[in-house]
Amino acid sequence: MSRKTVAIIGSGIAGIATAIRLAAKGFRVTIFEANSYPGGKLSEFELEGYRFDAGPSLFTMPHFVEELFLIAGKNPADYIAYGKLPVICEYFYEDGTHIRAYSDPEKFAEEIEQKTGQSKKSVLSYLKQSAFKYEVTANLFLKRSLHKLSTWLNLDAIRGYWNLPKLDVFQTLNEVNERHFQDPRVVQLFNRYATYNGSNPYETPGIMHIIPHLEYNVGAFFPAKGMYNITQSLVRLAEDMGVLFCYNTRINEIVVLNNKAVGVRPNKIDGRPAPTYESFDVVVSNMDIVNTYRKLLPHVAAPTRILEQPKSSSALIFYWGITRSFFELDLHNIFFSKDYQHEFDCLFHKQTISNDPTIYINITSKYKPDDAPSGCENWFTMINVPNNSGQDWDGLIDEARRNIILKLSRILKTDISKLIACEYIQDPRTIEARTSSSQGALYGISSNNRFAAFLRHDNKSSKVKNLYFVGGSVHPGGGIPLSLLSAKIAAGMVKEPS
Description:
Blueprint (H helix, E strand, L loop, with lengths): L4 E5 L3 H12 L3 E5 L11 E4 L2 E4 L5 E2 L2 H9 L10 E3 L2 E6 L5 E5 L2 H12 L3 H23 L6 H4 L2 H8 L10 H8 L3 H8 L19 H8 L1 E4 L4 H13 L3 E3 L2 E9 L2 E9 L9 E2 L2 E4 L3 H8 L7 H4 L6 E9 L9 E4 L4 H9 L10 E4 L14 E9 L7 H20 L7 E7 L1 H8 L31 E3 L10 H14 L5
Parallel strand pairs: 1-2, 1-14, 2-10, 7-16, 14-20
Antiparallel strand pairs: 3-4, 5-9, 6-9, 7-8, 11-12, 12-13, 15-18, 15-19, 16-17, 17-18
Helix pairs in contact: 1-10, 1-16, 3-4, 4-6, 4-9, 7-8
């Protein structure tokens, strides 16, 4: 009997992880990718002697990656190497405060006490509560489908109901942080974690307090060969398991007959004629859920209420080759805006960019020196921006670039404009074009209300048999760890071939 077949649309991290899990269950898997390279947002490029990771720059929960090698019977160390960061981030404020966020919670808490006067005890208590909330909610909300009755009728669910008053679901993240801390700089530092899923700390539920746990209690890491090596290692594993990658191949339609997904209609980017359709037993879309329905499922009724939810923020990224090194900077660096609430008001209510945006700089050459010429650095310089709703992006980009350079030059006491040897820019338009992310939103829908988790699309179609969805735009959410969990949930729903 021939093995059952699976078509996966898109080779983002969730698509590759799903392929590995289904190949381990005995399926014959083919991944169709419109680009000439795998990885989706988790890709790389080179520019005049500088290498850049194009997308995600933070690596947490590495055991979710290692798990993929283990289920395949492989040793993760044969595919990927990574180390724990001693310093998670360098934080810079307009008043001259510089906080070094050590990965050791004790040292981090001591640093905050020394720099701000906020007590060490309050920081450690905050991180302890963050860990508690994660432990209560992870098995319930992150590792199971929210659309199955069994999710709500088990011991994890009962524990969640019992501890509901402690989870801060009826307060905003900012309210939780202001309750814990008196110093506004510390509040701002922990408010920042709302941006990890493209949300507003003044609106997103306080349950987002769980995110710092992943960095300080579990750890932040860096792959020895850069973030893109996560993609490369998983592609290699998938290929070793027999997964077929078809690059430069766009899927025009998921073929549905009698409410059952029966295949896909591919089209080679080079213009060669496509077959009527290729037959598959199972179809998995790693494409943004909005574009999956609008572009690939024209004859299936779309879940309008879900697709029309407000989208997450996007990003404006300047990839700069910098012709000197800065000893005060590390792998991850944040230069905070003076008025954080105004910045988020611009992002989510005015759909524009503040004239004083918070700036994130990722410099992989700090840990991987060959990413830049000797004595130089590769700056991934990013600000949060609204998703694309037709703004004058060219004008906004020019203004933002000027403001970013002025801010960095002032704080670092160096004219940054004279150090930029080369530049490449990504904005919401190019992000949408290259990754099929609706409106260039990085995380699908935003989490700016307490019901957002329940408004993400399920990992399995309720209308079309044998059709599944993975990636950052569906349950449980965006970012590398949650995308990998979406793959685990979806693959777990697919029955093993008989």
